[in-house]
């Protein structure tokens, strides 16, 4: 098949040594699932379309890119998966999305447009924002939807969103926070629905361009990856400077002039999109180490070897993903840290879900905080 051959060619699948390092590395495979990246690479090279698209196994991949990093032949398996999922989606093969696909439905409603959102109900009087124009556009992502969908988990991903806006305010910025923002489309793209993704991309790129902002800041690692890599073909003219909130803080606060208020040990979860997809490892650590009284304790697997939260695209949630989350929370607890700090809201959702296990919850329990919340907490305590 020409399309399959093109996908194999552009992702270097043809260069596969058949060594099996991808399968030996894959967190899903290591958790006991009958899943092998090597099988998909081999099938792509042999043009076995039905073998790839016929059983839905393609959606088990976490797209964490750990295999890409360790492949001696430099096969870009994660990119191959994205292309194969697009083929799969066009042929009517959907992932068995958790939560009945409710989040995907909301994303597609946003893609179609003409749906009034109440995206800014979380804004309080102490947050200074502009709905349309400004130098810095703060991209909120879907945190307001996550908190509404997962009330039973008692997640508060909006805490990081609010903290980021407060920190921008303290830098003298009044960021644009737009009621017209829509989902970045990350999950739809990685589930194969490119058409809906492109509708969202065009709307969002124009929205930011019309605001006049020359910098876009976000607290979501997945939104960041989408804006930096997947939106590239949609920009007209010079794109804005696109930064994660930790990169912004690291650039503007090289030395945080704060007073220590006690001491606290934290550990940091590297999001796959921020780390292996974008190579951003230093900025979050630079910020955390600059906060007086905060001691960063690294997990056994950190940085480029960090373990995924096992649910980045809302396409797979099973016992194998749960085992990955449990193992990661045990790693966090083994550091002696009082809090697990994240740089992506989805990590919070998935780890909080794992902590709700009636048999393991007490063992796994650890405070979850966004990086921006940790910084803001210290600022407010010092005042």
Quick overview of this protein structure:
The chain has about 375 residues and is an alpha/beta fold.
What does this structure look like?
With 383 residues, the chain is of the alpha/beta class. The chain folds into three domains: 89 residues, no CATH class; 154 residues, Rossmann fold (3-Layer(aba) Sandwich), CATH 3.40.50; 129 residues, Rossmann fold (3-Layer(aba) Sandwich), CATH 3.40.50. Helix content is 47%, strand content 7%. The chain is built from 20 helices and seven strands. The strands form two sheets. Strands 5-4-6-7 form a four-stranded parallel sheet, with helices on both faces. The chain has a three-stranded parallel sheet with strand order 1-2-3. Strand 2, helix 13 and strand 3 form a beta-alpha-beta unit. It starts with a helix and ends with a helix.
Keywords:
single chain; 383 residues; alpha/beta; Rossmann fold; 3 domains; four-stranded parallel β-sheet; three-stranded parallel β-sheet; 20 helices; 47% helix
The overall strand count is 7
* Structural class category: alpha/beta
Total individual domains: 3
Low-confidence stretches: none
Our measurement of the CA-to-CA distance between the termini, rounded to an integer number of angstroms, reads: 65 Å
- CATH C-level category of the largest domain: Alpha Beta
Largest sheet: 4 strands, parallel
Question: Share of helix among residues?
Answer: 40-55%
Strands ordered across the widest β-sheet: 5-4-6-7
Number of helical stretches of at least 4 residues? 20
Average pLDDT rating: 92
Q: Topology as H/E string?
A: HHHHHHHHEHHHHEHEHEHHEHEHHEH
* Rg of Cα set: 21 Å
Strand content: 5-15%
Shape-level CATH architecture of the largest domain: 3-Layer(aba) Sandwich
- In the CATH hierarchy, the third-tier topology of the largest domain is known as Rossmann fold
């Amino acid at each position: 098949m020409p399309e399959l051959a093109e996908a194999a060619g552009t992702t270097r699948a043809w260069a596969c040594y058949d060594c099996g390092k991808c399968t030996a590395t894959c967190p899903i495979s290591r958790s006991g699932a009958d899943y092998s990246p090597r099988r998909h690479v081999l099938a792509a090279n042999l043009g076995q379309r039905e073998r790839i698209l016929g059983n839905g196994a393609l959606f088990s991949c976490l797209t964490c890119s750990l295999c890409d990093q360790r492949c001696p032949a430099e096969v870009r398996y994660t990119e191959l998966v994205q292309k194969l999922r697009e083929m799969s989606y066009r042929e009517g093969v959907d992932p068995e999305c958790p939560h009945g696909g409710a989040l995907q439905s909301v994303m597609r409603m946003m893609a179609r447009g003409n749906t009034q959102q109440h995206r800014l109900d979380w804004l309080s009087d102490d947050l200074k924002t502009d709905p349309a124009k400004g130098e810095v556009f703060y991209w909120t992502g879907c945190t307001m939807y996550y908190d509404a969908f997962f009330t039973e988990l008692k997640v508060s991903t909006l805490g990081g969103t609010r903290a980021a806006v407060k920190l921008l305010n303290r830098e003298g910025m009044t960021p644009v926070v737009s009621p017209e923002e829509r989902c970045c489309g990350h999950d739809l793209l990685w589930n194969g629905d490119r058409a809906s993704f492109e509708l969202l991309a065009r709307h969002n790129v124009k929205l930011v361009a019309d605001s006049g902002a020359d910098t876009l800041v976000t607290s979501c690692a997945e939104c960041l990856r989408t804006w930096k890599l997947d939106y590239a073909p949609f920009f007209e003219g010079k794109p804005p400077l696109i930064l994660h909130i930790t990169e912004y803080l690291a650039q503007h606060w090289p030395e945080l002039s704060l007073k220590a208020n006690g001491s606290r040990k934290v550990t940091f979860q590297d999001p796959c999109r921020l780390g292996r997809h974008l190579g951003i490892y230093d900025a979050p650590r630079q910020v955390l180490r600059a906060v007086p009284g905060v001691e960063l304790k690294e997990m056994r697997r950190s940085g480029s070897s960090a373990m995924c939260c096992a649910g980045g695209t809302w396409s797979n949630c099973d016992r194998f993903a749960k085992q990955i989350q449990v193992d990661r929370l045990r790693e966090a607890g083994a550091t002696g840290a009082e809090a697990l700090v994240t740089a992506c809201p989805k990590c919070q959702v998935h780890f909080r879900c794992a902590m709700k296990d009636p048999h393991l919850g007490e063992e796994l329990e650890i405070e979850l905080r966004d990086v921006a919340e940790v910084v803001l907490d210290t600022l407010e305590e010092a005042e």
